[in-house]
Amino acid sequence: MHCPFCRFPDSRVMDSRTADDGSSIRRRRQCPQCNQRFSTTETASLMVMKRSGVIEPFSREKIVNGVRKACQGRPVSDADLAFLAQKVEETVRATGAAQIDANEVGLAILEPLKALDEVAFMRFASVYEGWSSLEDFESAIKAFRDNR
After folding, report:
1. Sign of the alpha-carbon torsion through 98, 100, 102, 107
2. Over 90: is that where the pLDDT of 39 sits?
3. How does DSSP assign 93-148, residue by residue?
4. How many Å from the N-terminal Cα to the C-terminal Cα in the chain?
5. What one-character-per-residue DSSP string does 35-74 give?
6. How confident is the model at residue 18 (pLDDT cuts 50, 70, 90)?
7. Left, alpha or beta for 107 (phi > 0: left; psi -120 to 50: alpha)?
8. pLDDT confidence of residue 68
9. CA atoms of 106 and 129, how far apart (whole Å)
């Protein structure tokens, strides 16, 4: 870690603490060159490989925006969406992989969304799974009712 004050290429860790949300580590560091202290926040990177082959960082905002479209007109708050995105991220990070397919992120969305709002789940699943006929909806509704 380069010192932000003198750009010395090394620093000493004085203290480490887990952040409140548990997803990052806050480190207090000291430069051996200029003796200045500074803090860093470290998180494990998680990359998503899209169908096109493009790799980009995981984003809770993209989860929220995608699910928000399925929740239009439904009694779902922004806090509910943020909590859903957090659950999805926890599920995806629990795999331990540094890179994950976009398809796996979509699958991780389905269960928490089903628990949040059934109609929004059907909307999202119909687009995500590519339902093309009324029979697809009927079989999904039947399976939904059978699992209740």
Report:
1. negative
2. yes
3. HTT--SEEEHHHHHHHHHHHHHHH-HHHHHHHHHHHTT--SHHHHHHHHHHHHHH-
4. 53
5. --EEEEEEE---EEE-TTS-EEE--HHHHHHHHHHHTTTS
6. confident
7. alpha
8. 93
9. 9
Sheet of 24-30, strand order? 12-18, 24-30, 37-43
Give me 87's structure tokens: 């659950």
Work out the widest C-alpha separation in the chain, in whole angstroms: 70
| Spatial separation of the C-alpha atoms in residues 55 and 8, rounded to whole Å | 32
Beta strand 24-30 with 12-18 is: antiparallel
Q: Which two tokens stand for residue 106?
A: 């979509």
C-alpha radius of gyration, the chain, whole number: 21
Q: How far is CA 55 from the centre of its chain?
A: 15
Q: In what order do the strands lie in the sheet with 55-57?
A: 55-57, 47-49, 99-101
